[in-house]
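Write out this protein's structure.
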Amino acid sequence: MVITDPVLLKGRDAVEVLRQAVAGGATMVQVRWKDGMPAQILELTRALVAALPVPVLVDDRVDIALAAKAAGAHLGWDDPPLEALRAHVPPGFLLGISVGSADEAALAPISADYWSIGPCFATPTKHDAGPPLGPDDFAALAKLAPEGAPVIGIGGITAANARSIIDAGATGVAVIGAILGASDPAAAARAFGVLRRPSAS
């Protein structure tokens, strides 16, 4: 999952950068624009939904995700409760939740479509993130996820350290700087693709 960041894009066209990342193997995109105006976030989301062959999620804003016909939304603990929103979204609309501690894991709704666990490592792109978990603590939290729910590692993920999080139980990883900050987003995404778990025989 590649997460958008206007600062790291440095004026580049977000749609083109994400198109390159998907060409390199990214399988999902999340629109995160904390200080963006709702109209701006909606415009970007609609453009990405139209341009990309992979699911597009919106951080925090279920209303924008629905208006843009996005695949779903990612929720934090300051957002409306996931369970309350579930009845108001169409079937198949993804609702993910952030989990950063055992306390949050205990409170996380069992109907979440996936968990995003982190920060795995120190990260400069989310200033309110807690202390880094590292692979061992990530693994402990991942084991608390509902059976069958995908678990995504987030926070300071690079091609060099992603393998340790995948080996600790992650279904996949969410990446910001390692792809958006690269001069060649497609090549940066390909570096993660080689880390995928082999299919079960």
